[in-house]
Design a protein that fits this description.
With 660 residues, the protein is an alpha+beta fold. Helix content is 18%, strand content 33%. An eight-stranded mixed beta sheet has the order 28-29-31-30-32-33-34-35, sandwiched between helices. It has a four-stranded antiparallel beta sheet with strand order 1-2-3-4, with no helix packed on it. A four-stranded antiparallel beta sheet has the order 5-6-7-8, with no helix packed on it. Helix 1 packs parallel to helix 4 (341-353).
């Protein structure tokens, strides 16, 4: 029997273990509680060790998370695990960096005030631990970045570091000294057993964007020329003393000439794989000669989207090697096309074994006998597996209290904007027959290649309360071509908001939504859009819920334009309606949410907006989420309990004349 057929039969036999059966006819689905959604995932990101002998993952101790790392014997999962934890700091992640060593990341709050943009109140630490839990951990510099695992050198990894720790930048700034050296760390070999550093390459102040080949050689770099406004790309042989030679350049003001280095061609390290538009609207993948800068063959192009995302090998035998490319199918779900036939067979076997599920490969042992992966869909918050020596075992579930019957179908739709442009959106459907009340939920960014996950917590929570949720890919969402991106420039609260409204109106026209029961909720840029929604005319919303919202785009833009290359782009692009200047036009009630320690969109953006609402006697409520930063990973159990409770009550009781 062929190996792939054996794997397929093994997986099919084990499938019944993974998924609960559908409800019997006439059964009543249980409504999940707020705590079911607020409880932090029980298990996070299991990964097999390079030798396939151990599997590690983050495990929650309480509903709040309070994570430690469990390391189990991959040959006998029933054996007592090794546990790695900290009494004073929170574990935020880990990576295997050798057969018996883990690089563990921690965070802790060290300040009580955000003084300037990106000034986090949290500091991060990293240390190397033995997987058997014995001996002392090895501290490394906090700014250490692993750039290559050096598979042929098991005692070392290639890293970049400026030899700085958390707080050093703050202290340097307070002394009035330059922090330029922090932004261009040098390359070292890091001994995973001792923490010793061996300098490999001194970074040049003008260069960045380094690319490392599969032998750990530093082969590509780039610089920004402020006079020509060009990004210039250089290559070298990688040998000691080899010189940098220019092979390509792009002008930052030519928005249509998009060019991204994806990595080295796995067939020949003298070639790169790049994503480039080359006069077209959508970016496609090409080969490029590293020495001459000449484009070679086109590898993959799609008519409806950019191809810019690579799939790297999960195997420790060839880590970070490009195995294929990711895109989204006609149902809006991620798919992959592979350069490697063996990996393609494995991927297709897993997909056919778990129909309807998104499958993500995480790590594969060096000898390819052990693999960790997980599946996810709207009815499955996440199931983690290990396939070892032909035997499939379930490692655990991400959120086991959220049962299949509690969850709500997600669909992908196409609709037409008022200017005739074809747009797409994701819709999460509540139980029962429509027309339903609707929450429009624009994403953050806005210039991000965004797609909601197969399981989206916010959408599922709202759907569990009876609301349909639509998540539109409005103008400005990247990954959908140059025109779709550029048409957002200067259109904050204008064309971009029209696209959001048109998604709602499309669902009204389809008879799925009650036109008198529509609200908006969003975070970050989505929070801005929710503020802008409060002054729309004509008004289609009964209320809005801005989370971490931008009330003054000019002020937030000023925080990001220290970068000389981005300054003109952001000045042109981040422009449009300024909610702070439109307070008198606010015509719906609002629930404003903001993290106390938000460093990306500082809480003053909401505080000033709320103060203006008070002066204008506009209906609103302001909720500060204590201890939270901007990002979802910092919204803990208590934050989510408060946030979901406030949202449920507001939508039910205070959204419009009779509630939503």
């Amino acid at each position: 029997m062929e190996e792939t057929e054996l794997v397929r039969k093994t997986l099919l036999a084990a499938c019944a273990l993974a998924f609960a059966p559908l409800l019997a006819p006439g059964a009543i689905a249980e409504t999940p509680t707020i705590a079911d959604f607020a409880t932090r995932p029980v298990m996070f990101a299991p990964g097999i060790s390079p030798d396939g002998e151990r599997v590690a993952y983050r495990a929650a101790q309480t509903a709040k998370g309070d994570y430690y790392i469990e390391v189990r014997d991959a040959n006998n999962l029933q054996r007592k695990p090794v546990r790695i934890g900290s009494k004073n700091m929170s574990i935020t992640g880990f990576n295997w960096i050798s057969d018996d060593r883990l690089l563990v990341s921690f965070t802790q709050q060290v300040r009580n005030q955000v003084k300037e943009q990106e000034d986090s109140v949290f500091e991060n630490k990293r240390a190397i631990f033995r997987a058997d839990g014995k001996g002392r951990f090895v501290e490394i510099y906090d700014d250490t970045q692993i750039v290559s695992s050096l598979p042929n050198d098991p005692d070392h990894v290639l890293v970049r570091t400026s030899k700085f720790n958390s707080g050093d930048e703050r202290r340097i700034r307070e002394r009035g000294q330059s922090v330029g050296e922090l932004s261009n760390p040098d390359f070292y070999k890091l001994n995973v057993r001792t923490g010793a550093l061996d300098l490999q390459l001194k970074s040049e102040s003008r260069l960045g964007g380094y690319e490392i080949d599969d032998e750990g050689r530093i082969r590509v770099a780039s610089e920004y020329d402020s006079n020509s406004r060009d990004f210039i790309y250089y290559s070298r042989s990688g040998e000691v003393g080899s010189e940098w030679q220019e092979f390509h350049r792009t002008n930052v003001d030519n928005y249509g000439d998009r060019f991204t280095i994806l990595g080295f061609d796995p067939m020949d390290s003298n070639y790169l794989l790049v994503a480039a538009t080359r006069g077209e609207d959508k970016a496609a993948v090409y080969t490029m000669n590293l020495n001459t800068g000449e484009f070679g063959e086109q590898i993959l192009a799609l008519a409806d989207q950019d191809v810019e995302q690579v799939i790297t090998s999960p195997s420790y035998a060839n880590p970070d090697e490009i195995m294929g490319f990711a895109f989204y199918n006609e149902e809006g779900r991620p798919e992959g096309v592979f350069l490697d036939g063996e990996m393609n067979q494995l991927y297709e076997t897993l997909r056919s074994t778990f129909p309807g599920q998104d499958v993500f490969l995480t790590r594969q042992s060096r000898d390819k006998t052990a693999l960790t992966f997980f599946t996810q869909n709207w009815d499955n918050p996440g199931t983690y597996y290990m396939l070892k020596d032909g035997e499939l075992q379930i490692l655990g579930y991400r959120q086991p209290t959220l049962k299949k019957e509690m969850l709500h179908r997600q669909e992908f739709i196409e609709y037409e904007a008022r200017d005739g442009t074809k747009l797409t959106a994701y819709v999460t459907l509540p139980k029962g027959e429509g027309p339903h009340p609707l929450i429009v939920m624009p994403h953050g960014g806005p210039w991000v290649s965004y797609r909601p996950g197969a399981f989206d917590e916010w959408s599922q929570f709202l759907a569990s309360r009876g609301y349909m949720v639509v998540d539109p890919l409005f103008r400005g969402t990247t990954g959908l071509g140059t025109q779709h991106w550029v048409e957002s420039f200067g259109e904050w609260g204008k064309k971009m908001s029209d696209d959001m409204d048109d998604a709602a109106l499309h669902l009204v026209k389809q008879g799925q939504v009650d036109p008198d029961r529509i609200a908006m909720f969003g975070w970050s840029y989505g929070g801005y859009a929710s503020m802008a929604a409060s002054v729309r005319d004509p008004q289609i919303y009964q209320c809005s819920i801005p989370g971490a919202g931008v009330s003054d785009p000019i002020r937030i833009r000023a925080s990001f334009i220290r970068n000389r290359a981005q300054r003109p782009l952001l000045t042109v692009g981040y422009a449009g309606v300024i909610p702070m200047e439109e307070i008198e036009k606010v015509n719906i009630p609002m629930l404003i949410l903001h993290g106390e320690f938000d460093r990306r969109v500082r809480i003053r953006q909401s505080e000033d907006f709320v103060a203006a609402l008070k002066r204008a006697d506009k209906p609103h409520k302001f909720v500060v989420l204590e201890g939270a930063d901007h990002f979802g990973t910092t919204l803990g159990y208590d934050n989510r309990m408060e946030m979901y409770t406030e949202m449920e009550n507001f939508l039910k009781n205070d959204c419009g004349p009779g509630g939503l």
